[in-house]
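Dear colleague,

Following up on Tuesday's group meeting, I ran the structure prediction for the six-component complex that the binding team flagged. I've pasted the input sequences exactly as they went in, so you can double-check that nothing got truncated or mislabelled along the way. The structure tokens for the whole assembly follow below. Feel free to forward this to whoever is handling the docking comparison.

Inputs:
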Amino acid sequence: MTRPVTLFTGQWADLPLEELAGRCAGWGFDGLELACWGDHFDVAEAVRDSGYAAGRRALLERHGLGCWAIGNHLVGQAVCDPIDERHKSVLSPEIWGDGDPEGVRGRAAEAMMDTARAAAQLGVTVVIGFTGSPTWHMLYSFPPNDFDEIERGYQEFAERWGPIIDVFEAEGVRFALEVHPTEIAYDFVTTRKALDAIGDRPGFGINFDPSHFEHQFLDSATFITEFGGKIFHAHIKDSVKHLDGRSSILGGHLQFGEPGRGWDFVSPGHGDVDFESMIRALNRIGYSGPLSIEWEDSGMDREWGAPDALAFVRRTDFAPSEVAFDAAFGKEA
Amino acid sequence: MTRPVTLFTGQWADLPLEELAGRCAGWGFDGLELACWGDHFDVAEAVRDSGYAAGRRALLERHGLGCWAIGNHLVGQAVCDPIDERHKSVLSPEIWGDGDPEGVRGRAAEAMMDTARAAAQLGVTVVIGFTGSPTWHMLYSFPPNDFDEIERGYQEFAERWGPIIDVFEAEGVRFALEVHPTEIAYDFVTTRKALDAIGDRPGFGINFDPSHFEHQFLDSATFITEFGGKIFHAHIKDSVKHLDGRSSILGGHLQFGEPGRGWDFVSPGHGDVDFESMIRALNRIGYSGPLSIEWEDSGMDREWGAPDALAFVRRTDFAPSEVAFDAAFGKEA
Amino acid sequence: MTRPVTLFTGQWADLPLEELAGRCAGWGFDGLELACWGDHFDVAEAVRDSGYAAGRRALLERHGLGCWAIGNHLVGQAVCDPIDERHKSVLSPEIWGDGDPEGVRGRAAEAMMDTARAAAQLGVTVVIGFTGSPTWHMLYSFPPNDFDEIERGYQEFAERWGPIIDVFEAEGVRFALEVHPTEIAYDFVTTRKALDAIGDRPGFGINFDPSHFEHQFLDSATFITEFGGKIFHAHIKDSVKHLDGRSSILGGHLQFGEPGRGWDFVSPGHGDVDFESMIRALNRIGYSGPLSIEWEDSGMDREWGAPDALAFVRRTDFAPSEVAFDAAFGKEA
Amino acid sequence: MTRPVTLFTGQWADLPLEELAGRCAGWGFDGLELACWGDHFDVAEAVRDSGYAAGRRALLERHGLGCWAIGNHLVGQAVCDPIDERHKSVLSPEIWGDGDPEGVRGRAAEAMMDTARAAAQLGVTVVIGFTGSPTWHMLYSFPPNDFDEIERGYQEFAERWGPIIDVFEAEGVRFALEVHPTEIAYDFVTTRKALDAIGDRPGFGINFDPSHFEHQFLDSATFITEFGGKIFHAHIKDSVKHLDGRSSILGGHLQFGEPGRGWDFVSPGHGDVDFESMIRALNRIGYSGPLSIEWEDSGMDREWGAPDALAFVRRTDFAPSEVAFDAAFGKEA
Amino acid sequence: MTRPVTLFTGQWADLPLEELAGRCAGWGFDGLELACWGDHFDVAEAVRDSGYAAGRRALLERHGLGCWAIGNHLVGQAVCDPIDERHKSVLSPEIWGDGDPEGVRGRAAEAMMDTARAAAQLGVTVVIGFTGSPTWHMLYSFPPNDFDEIERGYQEFAERWGPIIDVFEAEGVRFALEVHPTEIAYDFVTTRKALDAIGDRPGFGINFDPSHFEHQFLDSATFITEFGGKIFHAHIKDSVKHLDGRSSILGGHLQFGEPGRGWDFVSPGHGDVDFESMIRALNRIGYSGPLSIEWEDSGMDREWGAPDALAFVRRTDFAPSEVAFDAAFGKEA
Amino acid sequence: MTRPVTLFTGQWADLPLEELAGRCAGWGFDGLELACWGDHFDVAEAVRDSGYAAGRRALLERHGLGCWAIGNHLVGQAVCDPIDERHKSVLSPEIWGDGDPEGVRGRAAEAMMDTARAAAQLGVTVVIGFTGSPTWHMLYSFPPNDFDEIERGYQEFAERWGPIIDVFEAEGVRFALEVHPTEIAYDFVTTRKALDAIGDRPGFGINFDPSHFEHQFLDSATFITEFGGKIFHAHIKDSVKHLDGRSSILGGHLQFGEPGRGWDFVSPGHGDVDFESMIRALNRIGYSGPLSIEWEDSGMDREWGAPDALAFVRRTDFAPSEVAFDAAFGKEA
């Protein structure tokens, strides 16, 4: 099995796509997972202008790059979240509007429906993204949570996302939630509950990213095995724990990369993620989509890191066996 | 050094104080850390009725119990928090009022000033409590935090609590923040910043409780050593981690005690806290106040647990050496 | 919840029951789990002589001891095993007969039916025992196993034990297989398969003994949680690993207690078993039967060990909570 | 020291030797360890036809490949084992005959003598293989073992293999037992006893394979150091443990590669074996024979794996120092 | 086996023996290991005055205390050491004399011979002590050691101690070197070499103290097993490691008990020593002498610690089994 | 940031510089850290002959090699040490003279001043070296240390090295003490005290070498972070621990490379050092000097090891990020 290796462009949105594509082609990537911000992929434009998506595709093809998925995390986040100033800084003025929370959530939902339409135009079948969460802020139960309210949060998520997924399914595109703290699903329990709430529908699944599991002490391979058929896409991203008794695993309200944090994101292969087991698990469930590097490492030059990460994935990814063990062994002529 | 062992009454607020005092005396406790809820200690009443506090003291003395501190966590929490329904369920109607957040915060601040006054009447010099936090809900930086806003949160805390501490100092009482997730200070970094913000004043310090450090992978003894002089009171409470690759250290939005959580509170001596090192550290800083058992264990009968916890503390607490090492060794006659 | 603590008498079969009962009563045990060998409990005699069982019960009662279960491991082992000389040395001449394997297996099956009848006469509702295994000897797949043969082994077990369990159910007695290497079920996978094979019937369940899980690196609490309703009885027994790079976890074909083994049985509390988690798990599933000490420690005087083990269980076993967590906390008056 | 790297052909017996040799030469192997099954190396034919061995050698040389050892595990296994259907499926009809156990064992012993003769014809001085074991099935002592019978098992091994080794020594060939579960020697203790039983003779030694040690928690380097002079050959093979509390180290009677096993074989460098320490130990004892990759990984395409394994060995194997430490350091001119 | 528990009096030399004996008797000790300093046991006086030893014995007996060994560490240290000011502060003026190193060593050797004579008078058969070391100061080989000089150090030790041991053997007393950093033997390798150098003579053996092994990462039980017959006496003393990445295992030239050290001595049961395994190993070698508590804990009041340590030993020490495992199990009537 | 990779020539002093330079250039090194012994760099000659240094520089340049530092460990060691035969074997006859300790120390101090002068002539600004230590031999406090004497040792160091550093500063050269056992500074505590003693002067700092920290259980990255500005130079050297319960972390007075040691030096990347964290820490403090491989591995051929080590450093060293984390992420167009 030879899986394409792509780069998620979200952390490179300061570069025009033309320039980034040139660099990635030079490093040897097979393709890009386009972020729906910067100038990389403009959902609104794609819906407005029927030639836009084809133009982006052509740009990539000029560099010999493919595209199997796009990522629209920022808008998706606003669909279920309590809205505050942080959302304003990452949303377009059109979606933010007057900032009234329910209005923002509604416009974000519309934009996610458009994302499905734009993806179809671009010819990709997977959109990666976030859902937001009505209950994330109740993570630690103090003042004591009303746990019925937590359960209602899963329902709210299902109600807000159901109509969006209807559009996805109509367009033949699948939404892959990146399981992640701050989202409706971030671990085993919450993923089970979120999937239960929205139902087992073909248009809703998971983007698996191990970097969000490592600092939670969750096992990536076990997760992949449990949710196998629902894993629509995979990120390659790493994280590392620094637990010396003085740094909290909760992060200390410190920015990523600041000394004193109990964990941080690092370039793939430089952290604690067990990619060997992850690849074996992806092989077991028959995943054949891209391995998409989401490159974040506040301590490393990204120009050094991106090709280093690509080389790491090339030597770590391998094809599963197609014959049973010892089928050849143990036959006396 | 013989330190009194007390029970914090907050988890026993369903029992009238008279009944609880009888049981605790029977188990052999030296005293109680009275919670400012249930009928245990009513701050408003103490301020209103000049005989109330003496009555409570007399009740305890009838059972041979002392009192060195009271705890008012619930009201303190409302001083800096964004206010939501969860606060309503733990505040008195007087403090909740119409629920307007700024109004709630103001009335809570007044009530904390009254707590200092009531403590003085009762003859105790330490009030344990929570501060709330303007920034706790921004724990995970997504959507990306404006980190200046985090810094402003420490300032807001200082502004809201400064006037309260003025009253404490005027009454000769000290406020001991229980360093705890959801509070302005919950680890090393945030404690340093909170203390910096409010300044080094005699009326503001720490109630150290190791159960909130264990699941953050923080070392209790190192904390005690660093913040030595600021530690005004100590809780004895334990917690345990269940990290099997499927349970998140973040808790999965599950109630304490539900299977599937990555950590939980347990009766002292039944979890992961290294009390030996904690006692040695308390000895080193010369702490001579109470060791106050805050008993929470969702899997154990509290009637079994409380005397078990007391016995545990009695055999774990020891006095420091008063002579230099080997002072006696190595003298040939 | 107050669970009785009993001693399994199998390792004390050199002592007459009268004498053993006296000692156990002196040490403070609540009762005995009688072994069906030595003079402790004679199944054949109980079936033959309608007064025998009552006599044994009376003997125990004279010492103030109860009896909630009996154990007949040795005969059960012969029901499914390939038969060899080792069985001869632990079976009665009547059951061994001429030693023809199928004949031995058949007579052992009859004797297990009698065990149910005898248990009913004694007034106990649980029989602990082994099943033997048609496939244990194929543990390591070399020469390569035919794995269909393994699956047929579970069927053979079900066929041999089905009729025995019919008698158990008719007598109102339950058979509790001690999950254990050499038996049809010894870990999670094999327990699932064995239960699947015999079906979910009221007369067949599990005697949980953590000492057989520790050296397999299996988690006792997780097992109890998974198989909750099927756990009919529990042993308290400990084991310890000695993994220094020179001692195999497989045991080196060395006798228990010989230096050089990678693991060994030890007196409860002297080994690696996490009894705290085991008790919590038993509490969660609502187990209220005996905690039966099976005392084996080749390096300790059993007269020293038995009361030490009893004291260990008394201080380790505790009742679960009957109220929800924090039900009392967090109520402002 | 530059050691040749070979591939053991046993797991590739479905491919004709001509084809396999071509692939291996292309990958860059130095030679092959020929399996005595498939069409790779036919012992009976070599004894019958005096030109056969030279023909095999010529085939290898056409591809630029050497051969320093051959492997005949399957026949050797039958020399000491209790015989069952599993042996039938891996033995030739000539050796199996009517399947009478003692007859099978005798014919297997003859075939091993022929293996020595065939090896001499091929010009190799080492035969790798298994011995079988009269006592492996008594691994767990229940029903309780008669440990005298275990000791007699080592004697039986010595009696059965002594005459075979006579032929080896007469032919100038050495037999290297692959220390392995199911064999007379599988850990430190059993290797000591097996060597004691057969005596310190030049024709009997060890093929060291670390993959069989890892899941037993045995240290490879310590073993190599202890048995130094007796190590005639070395396999490069890896294994990995998956101990999550639900998977038994004993394997659960599951096929290699099935999810749920506590350990599994994997391609070299993808598992837990500490090859660095193994190479240092081989250097210390002066081992200069081949490093022979026995490639088994049920989760990896073997065409991907074999060259990956070769590259791993090339970068892991290094020559020892020929000068004393710091001989150059510390000389002031 | 019931072993006496004694207290080594070296760390209590500031108290007159009469007073210390009274306290120890009150705490329940079985006896004392008298230090040859303070007023506890005066070797010179015992040699001079034939009634002195009997007087000390009588004093102990008045308190119901026994004595099985005496300890003379300080003088023994001077026999092989390079002599410096540190020795002056722990030696009597008679032994120090003019401080000329060879003279000091000679007088110390004479004093150790007298110690044997005094022990005989007191009726004890074991003297605990140190040997000093000609090579300890060459612990880290920089500037590079001449390793021949290290070997000569063992010879020098043997030459200096041989004549002393002659006197011990003549008196029927055994010298037990406390294996310890700064002595000729402090780990496995050096103990083997020291014993090789002095030869296997009945008068020279080991006082085993696990606190000196823990910070070296040495396994106490393995040591006891290897040197079994040479272990003449055992200390019960504990130590703890504090390895947080900032504290060196070498100790940082800090006094015991100072914060920042990587390890420290603590009261038995409060540190890292695995006493369970130590007791089992002592049982295996048949050691029946005293368990002598050497109490040192710079962070604990010794009056609290001594009875705590005694209680710890009483509940940790147990008798070995006198019957073979499962001798009683597995006998069908 | 692209840092030069150099080889420290001290362990290659048996080779003429011309030959060594040729090999290193062939392997791809950027330069050499010249040892001041062998024929590599002769301090006395450089002071004597004004053209010598330029000649050495020219030799290097012919091979395309740079030089940023020289190392003079052996002479520096003699400045503060108690002097014994070991120093004689590593010092020149001129410095040793009659061997009178104070004389040796004085001549060594003069030679270190000359080293600064010679370095200036060569055009390098850093000299690596040792200081020796007046107190190293008092590492373990028995006989009990007078800790005032330890403190005086730091003063003595400062007094002996102050005048040397005066010359360094006058020459515009910095002395970088290799923090190392046997030196005045070998861990966090001693480094703090040594720097306090000599004062914060520009001419005295640290050569950081992680191989000396690993066996002390010290964290390299934490050290670099604490002493950031004082780190003038960095060695790349590795070490490995072998702690199997029988090998002491103290080394057993065994030569490096002898079996039985608890730790040993190994080629970079073959041991326990966490170079990833070390590089990140060096990036954080802005260190831009050479990464100088000090190659010592008693079990590896140095010709194999040196290029292996260089390749390891090339793939491990990376440049830090020059933009803030997520600066590009999170901008909706």
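Chain A touches chain B through 52 residues (CB under 8 Å).

Cheers,
M.
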